[in-house]
Structure to design on (244 residues):
Protein backbone atom coordinates (compact mmCIF):
# COMPACT_ATOMS: atom_id res chain seq x y z
CA UNK A 1 0.00 0.00 0.00
CA UNK A 2 1.22 3.57 -0.71
CA UNK A 3 2.89 4.74 2.53
CA UNK A 4 2.13 8.51 2.14
CA UNK A 5 -1.53 7.69 1.51
CA UNK A 6 -1.62 5.47 4.61
CA UNK A 7 -0.02 8.21 6.71
CA UNK A 8 -2.56 10.78 5.53
CA UNK A 9 -5.41 8.39 6.29
CA UNK A 10 -4.09 7.72 9.80
CA UNK A 11 -3.57 11.45 10.43
CA UNK A 12 -7.13 12.23 9.31
CA UNK A 13 -8.56 9.45 11.48
CA UNK A 14 -6.57 10.66 14.50
CA UNK A 15 -7.78 14.23 14.01
CA UNK A 16 -11.38 13.06 13.68
CA UNK A 17 -11.01 10.95 16.81
CA UNK A 18 -9.55 13.89 18.73
CA UNK A 19 -12.40 16.14 17.62
CA UNK A 20 -14.96 13.53 18.68
CA UNK A 21 -13.27 13.22 22.07
CA UNK A 22 -13.39 16.99 22.57
CA UNK A 23 -17.07 17.07 21.59
CA UNK A 24 -17.88 14.25 24.02
CA UNK A 25 -15.90 15.94 26.77
CA UNK A 26 -17.75 19.19 26.17
CA UNK A 27 -21.10 17.40 26.18
CA UNK A 28 -20.18 15.71 29.48
CA UNK A 29 -19.19 19.04 31.03
CA UNK A 30 -22.32 20.76 29.76
CA UNK A 31 -24.58 18.10 31.29
CA UNK A 32 -22.64 17.84 34.55
CA UNK A 33 -24.71 20.39 36.46
CA UNK A 34 -28.30 20.59 37.64
CA UNK A 35 -30.20 22.50 34.97
CA UNK A 36 -33.75 23.55 34.20
CA UNK A 37 -35.69 23.37 30.93
CA UNK A 38 -38.98 25.32 30.66
CA UNK A 39 -41.70 24.26 28.23
CA UNK A 40 -42.44 27.99 27.74
CA UNK A 41 -40.97 31.30 28.85
CA UNK A 42 -43.71 33.79 27.91
CA UNK A 43 -44.47 36.44 30.51
CA UNK A 44 -47.64 35.90 32.53
CA UNK A 45 -47.98 32.28 31.35
CA UNK A 46 -48.09 28.94 33.12
CA UNK A 47 -44.92 26.93 32.56
CA UNK A 48 -43.57 23.51 33.41
CA UNK A 49 -39.99 23.68 34.64
CA UNK A 50 -38.07 20.41 34.33
CA UNK A 51 -35.02 20.15 36.58
CA UNK A 52 -32.48 17.54 35.48
CA UNK A 53 -30.48 15.70 38.13
CA UNK A 54 -27.70 14.18 36.01
CA UNK A 55 -25.22 12.86 38.59
CA UNK A 56 -24.42 12.70 42.28
CA UNK A 57 -21.71 14.41 44.31
CA UNK A 58 -18.54 12.87 42.89
CA UNK A 59 -19.59 9.19 42.99
CA UNK A 60 -22.12 9.43 45.79
CA UNK A 61 -25.85 8.90 45.19
CA UNK A 62 -28.28 11.84 45.47
CA UNK A 63 -30.64 11.73 48.45
CA UNK A 64 -32.29 15.17 48.44
CA UNK A 65 -32.83 18.11 46.08
CA UNK A 66 -33.98 21.44 47.54
CA UNK A 67 -35.06 23.98 44.92
CA UNK A 68 -35.31 27.58 46.14
CA UNK A 69 -37.88 29.72 44.36
CA UNK A 70 -36.96 33.28 43.33
CA UNK A 71 -38.76 36.11 45.11
CA UNK A 72 -40.69 36.88 41.91
CA UNK A 73 -42.65 33.64 42.40
CA UNK A 74 -45.19 33.15 45.15
CA UNK A 75 -45.82 29.46 44.68
CA UNK A 76 -45.02 26.35 42.65
CA UNK A 77 -46.89 23.10 42.19
CA UNK A 78 -44.54 20.11 42.28
CA UNK A 79 -45.22 17.15 40.01
CA UNK A 80 -45.32 13.76 41.70
CA UNK A 81 -42.31 11.55 40.98
CA UNK A 82 -42.65 7.96 42.25
CA UNK A 83 -38.96 7.86 43.20
CA UNK A 84 -39.21 10.85 45.55
CA UNK A 85 -41.33 12.35 48.31
CA UNK A 86 -41.93 16.10 48.06
CA UNK A 87 -42.83 18.94 50.37
CA UNK A 88 -43.32 22.70 50.18
CA UNK A 89 -41.49 25.04 52.51
CA UNK A 90 -43.37 28.26 53.27
CA UNK A 91 -41.96 31.64 54.21
CA UNK A 92 -43.69 34.25 56.33
CA UNK A 93 -43.41 37.64 54.66
CA UNK A 94 -42.22 40.63 56.65
CA UNK A 95 -45.18 42.57 55.28
CA UNK A 96 -48.21 41.67 53.15
CA UNK A 97 -47.54 41.40 49.43
CA UNK A 98 -50.17 42.80 47.09
CA UNK A 99 -51.04 40.75 44.04
CA UNK A 100 -52.14 41.89 40.58
CA UNK A 101 -55.77 41.00 41.31
CA UNK A 102 -55.82 43.32 44.33
CA UNK A 103 -55.60 40.60 46.96
CA UNK A 104 -52.71 40.25 49.40
CA UNK A 105 -50.67 37.35 50.76
CA UNK A 106 -48.72 37.10 54.01
CA UNK A 107 -46.65 34.01 53.13
CA UNK A 108 -45.25 32.36 50.03
CA UNK A 109 -43.70 29.06 48.99
CA UNK A 110 -39.96 29.61 49.23
CA UNK A 111 -38.66 26.13 48.51
CA UNK A 112 -39.62 22.77 47.05
CA UNK A 113 -37.79 19.82 48.62
CA UNK A 114 -37.63 16.40 46.95
CA UNK A 115 -36.30 13.51 49.07
CA UNK A 116 -35.27 10.29 47.32
CA UNK A 117 -36.95 7.11 48.54
CA UNK A 118 -33.67 5.39 47.67
CA UNK A 119 -30.43 7.20 46.75
CA UNK A 120 -30.22 8.04 43.05
CA UNK A 121 -27.03 6.32 41.79
CA UNK A 122 -24.49 8.80 40.46
CA UNK A 123 -24.42 7.13 37.04
CA UNK A 124 -28.19 7.58 36.59
CA UNK A 125 -30.30 10.70 36.04
CA UNK A 126 -33.81 11.77 36.96
CA UNK A 127 -36.05 14.79 36.40
CA UNK A 128 -38.20 16.84 38.77
CA UNK A 129 -40.98 19.04 37.39
CA UNK A 130 -42.57 22.17 38.84
CA UNK A 131 -45.59 24.05 37.50
CA UNK A 132 -45.32 27.82 37.98
CA UNK A 133 -47.05 31.02 36.89
CA UNK A 134 -44.37 33.18 35.33
CA UNK A 135 -44.63 36.86 36.32
CA UNK A 136 -45.32 39.60 33.80
CA UNK A 137 -41.67 40.65 33.74
CA UNK A 138 -40.20 40.07 30.27
CA UNK A 139 -36.42 40.23 30.22
CA UNK A 140 -36.13 39.10 33.85
CA UNK A 141 -33.98 36.08 34.67
CA UNK A 142 -35.36 33.84 37.40
CA UNK A 143 -32.70 31.96 39.34
CA UNK A 144 -33.44 28.73 41.20
CA UNK A 145 -30.56 27.99 43.61
CA UNK A 146 -30.60 24.24 44.14
CA UNK A 147 -28.94 22.31 46.96
CA UNK A 148 -28.14 18.73 45.98
CA UNK A 149 -27.48 16.50 48.99
CA UNK A 150 -25.82 13.12 48.55
CA UNK A 151 -25.01 10.13 50.72
CA UNK A 152 -21.60 11.73 51.09
CA UNK A 153 -21.25 15.47 50.60
CA UNK A 154 -23.44 18.00 48.80
CA UNK A 155 -23.29 20.48 45.93
CA UNK A 156 -24.82 23.94 46.19
CA UNK A 157 -25.87 25.00 42.69
CA UNK A 158 -26.33 28.66 43.58
CA UNK A 159 -23.76 30.71 41.67
CA UNK A 160 -25.38 33.53 39.67
CA UNK A 161 -23.64 35.08 36.68
CA UNK A 162 -22.87 38.78 36.86
CA UNK A 163 -23.74 41.17 34.04
CA UNK A 164 -21.82 40.11 30.95
CA UNK A 165 -20.55 36.91 32.54
CA UNK A 166 -21.08 33.57 30.80
CA UNK A 167 -23.08 31.27 33.15
CA UNK A 168 -21.22 28.29 31.67
CA UNK A 169 -18.00 29.64 33.16
CA UNK A 170 -19.35 29.15 36.68
CA UNK A 171 -18.39 26.06 38.63
CA UNK A 172 -21.81 25.54 40.22
CA UNK A 173 -24.35 27.76 38.39
CA UNK A 174 -27.91 28.08 39.65
CA UNK A 175 -30.56 26.81 37.22
CA UNK A 176 -32.20 29.82 35.57
CA UNK A 177 -35.00 30.82 33.21
CA UNK A 178 -35.24 34.11 31.32
CA UNK A 179 -38.77 35.42 30.78
CA UNK A 180 -39.65 36.49 27.24
CA UNK A 181 -42.36 38.77 25.87
CA UNK A 182 -45.90 37.55 26.34
CA UNK A 183 -47.16 35.50 23.43
CA UNK A 184 -50.20 36.85 21.59
CA UNK A 185 -53.14 35.66 23.67
CA UNK A 186 -50.76 32.96 24.99
CA UNK A 187 -52.35 30.30 22.79
CA UNK A 188 -55.89 30.88 24.09
CA UNK A 189 -56.93 33.97 22.14
CA UNK A 190 -58.96 34.56 19.02
CA UNK A 191 -55.96 34.13 16.73
CA UNK A 192 -55.17 30.71 18.14
CA UNK A 193 -58.84 29.76 18.11
CA UNK A 194 -59.18 30.90 14.51
CA UNK A 195 -56.10 28.92 13.56
CA UNK A 196 -57.50 25.86 15.31
CA UNK A 197 -60.82 26.26 13.52
CA UNK A 198 -59.05 26.71 10.19
CA UNK A 199 -56.94 23.62 10.82
CA UNK A 200 -60.03 21.66 11.83
CA UNK A 201 -61.94 22.85 8.78
CA UNK A 202 -59.00 21.96 6.59
CA UNK A 203 -58.87 18.51 8.11
CA UNK A 204 -62.59 18.04 7.56
CA UNK A 205 -62.33 19.27 3.98
CA UNK A 206 -59.37 17.03 3.22
CA UNK A 207 -61.10 14.06 4.79
CA UNK A 208 -64.23 14.76 2.78
CA UNK A 209 -62.24 15.02 -0.43
CA UNK A 210 -60.49 11.76 0.35
CA UNK A 211 -63.80 10.10 1.15
CA UNK A 212 -65.30 11.35 -2.10
CA UNK A 213 -62.27 10.14 -4.06
CA UNK A 214 -62.47 6.71 -2.52
CA UNK A 215 -66.25 6.64 -3.04
CA UNK A 216 -65.80 7.53 -6.72
CA UNK A 217 -63.14 4.89 -7.15
CA UNK A 218 -65.34 2.35 -5.39
CA UNK A 219 -68.27 3.22 -7.62
CA UNK A 220 -66.10 2.85 -10.71
CA UNK A 221 -64.84 -0.54 -9.61
CA UNK A 222 -68.36 -1.62 -8.75
CA UNK A 223 -69.51 -0.53 -12.20
CA UNK A 224 -66.78 -2.55 -13.88
CA UNK A 225 -67.68 -5.60 -11.81
CA UNK A 226 -71.38 -5.29 -12.61
CA UNK A 227 -70.61 -4.77 -16.27
CA UNK A 228 -68.46 -7.89 -16.30
CA UNK A 229 -71.18 -9.89 -14.63
CA UNK A 230 -73.74 -8.66 -17.14
CA UNK A 231 -71.43 -9.55 -20.03
CA UNK A 232 -70.90 -13.06 -18.68
CA UNK A 233 -74.64 -13.55 -18.21
CA UNK A 234 -75.32 -12.27 -21.74
CA UNK A 235 -72.75 -14.67 -23.18
CA UNK A 236 -74.25 -17.52 -21.22
CA UNK A 237 -77.75 -16.76 -22.60
CA UNK A 238 -76.45 -16.65 -26.20
CA UNK A 239 -74.76 -20.01 -25.78
CA UNK A 240 -77.92 -21.46 -24.28
CA UNK A 241 -80.01 -20.14 -27.21
CA UNK A 242 -77.62 -21.51 -29.79
CA UNK A 243 -77.72 -24.95 -28.18
CA UNK A 244 -81.50 -25.27 -28.57
Amino acid sequence: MNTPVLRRALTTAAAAGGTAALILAGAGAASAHVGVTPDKTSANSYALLTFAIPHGCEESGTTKVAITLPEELNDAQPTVNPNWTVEKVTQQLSEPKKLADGSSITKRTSQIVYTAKAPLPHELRDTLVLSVKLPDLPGTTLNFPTLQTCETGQTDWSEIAKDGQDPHSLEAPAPSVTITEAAAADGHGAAATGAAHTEQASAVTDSGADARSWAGLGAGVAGLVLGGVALVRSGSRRKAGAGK
In short: The chain has two domains: 26-182, 190-244. The two ends are 90 Å apart (CA to CA). The helical segments are 3-30, 190-243.
